[in-house]
Specification:
Blueprint lengths: L4 H9 L22 H10 L19 E6 L7 E5 L8 E3 L12 E5 L13 E6 L2 E13 L11 E8 L2 E9 L4 H27 L18 E3 L2 E2 L8 E3 L2 E3 L2 E2 L2 E3 L6 E3 L4 E10 L5 E11 L4 E11 L6 E2 L4 E5 L10 E7 L2 E3 L1 H6 L1
Parallel strand pairs: 2-3, 4-7
Antiparallel strand pairs: 1-2, 1-5, 3-4, 5-6, 6-8, 7-8, 9-14, 10-13, 11-12, 14-21, 15-20, 16-17, 16-19, 17-18, 18-20, 18-21, 21-22
Helix pairs in contact: 1-3
Length: about 350
């Protein structure tokens, strides 16, 4: 189970509104970038550049067509293009923000000739990518002016576009495919926000936890049943890694160990989360019972599918200290430990750190 199995569930369940719409890595003929200055200045003036951003995935090169977007009461789909130098009839994506389908803030800028007739709360926005179709539901529409802030970071799409008399902002929330997917979205958002809070607190206090250079303690001993990287396992989230899209990507490693095996902290740190993620029926979903530890230096480790917790949020732990017992809770096909290492909010391969 990798970060955001939700994404695969959403991609597989939501209807795609534009048949055959697949983005490509470079612009086709007739899509030479417009001057970036005007669009970039408009988005910066509208507050996009100063907004606090949640972001996980590496970005594609400017000019890449990420997706096609269907806006309310706009007859034709429009291109969603990486970067703010989009043509007047395209939508530009702020490269520091989330990709389509991610439950993180995605900030977009409409081209100067893009006309969106009076969107209203409840309208749907469909975004079709090479890795799935995603639906967003409009939650607010409001005017904005150059220099105005776009508001606090939120797990939503924010599209700044030209309206009569100035600029306006559409805020639209990602619609999960089913109740369990909604619970997994909540989990992914909680993990990322907890990481941000821990990082901010460390900066404010000036304190860090010293790590052995390039080395982590193995959290358990057992065979590796799934490596970090691309996979055919359908539950895994679509992921862009080092600029390449993968339909399914495992953002940690799985260790095949029996239920009840001791799971240990990979390094000294502070427990950020120690909880069970449940769906609407109370059944564990996603990571199930899991622990997230902050080690300082923007390094986090996550331990998923546990059967029992032995620590609480806010607790300091030592390297090798027991933090819980392994199990098969959440989206799991059998007893194992899902172990992730994140540098900031970016998952990295744990093996070089464990073997270093």
């Amino acid at each position: 189970m990798a970060l955001g199995a939700t994404g695969a569930a959403v991609a597989g369940i939501l209807a795609v509104s534009t048949a055959g719409a697949t983005p490509h890595g470079t612009r086709s003929a007739g899509h030479a970038p417009a001057s970036p200055s005007a669009a970039a200045q408009q988005l910066t003036a509208a507050g996009g550049a100063s907004a606090h951003i949640l972001s996980l995935r590496p970005r594609l090169a400017d000019g890449s067509v990420l997706a096609q977007v269907r806006l309310p009461r706009v007859a034709a789909a429009v291109n969603l293009v990486e970067g703010l130098g989009q043509n007047p009839d395209e939508v530009g994506h702020d490269a520091r923000t989330g990709y389509p389908g991610e439950p993180h803030s995605m900030v977009l800028m409409g081209g100067s000739s893009l006309v969106v007739p009076s969107p209203v709360v409840g309208d749907s926005i469909h975004v079709d990518t090479s890795y799935g179709g995603f639906q967003y539901r409009v939650s607010s529409v409001r005017p904005t002016t150059p220099g105005a802030d776009l508001g606090p970071d939120a797990p939503a799409l924010r599209l700044v576009y030209h309206a009569l008399g100035g600029l306006a902002v559409i805020v639209a929330d990602l619609v999960p495919g089913d109740p369990d997917s909604a619970a997994e979205l909540t989990q992914e958002i909680a993990v990322t926000r907890a990481e941000r809070t821990a990082e901010a607190a460390a900066v404010a206090s000036g304190g860090t936890v010293q790590l052995a250079p390039g080395h982590l303690y193995p959290p358990a001993t057992g065979p590796i049943t799934q490596l970090f990287g691309p996979t055919d396992f359908a539950l895994e989230f679509p992921f862009t890694y080092q600029g390449v899209h993968y339909p399914h990507f495992h953002t940690g490693i799985d260790l095949g160990i029996a239920t009840g095996t001791a799971v240990r902290a990979a390094s000294a740190g502070t427990v950020v989360l120690a909880t069970t993620n449940t769906g609407p029926d109370g059944r564990p979903v996603g990571y199930g019972t899991y622990v997230l530890i902050y080690h300082g230096g923007n390094l986090f480790t996550l331990y998923g599918h546990l059967s029992q917790l032995a620590v609480t949020a806010g607790q300091r732990v030592a390297t090798g200290q027991g933090i819980g017992l392994s199990g098969s809770t959440g989206n799991s096909t059998g007893p194992h430990l899902h172990f992730e290492v994140r540098q900031g909010q970016t998952p990295v391969d744990p093996l070089p750190l464990i073997r270093g």
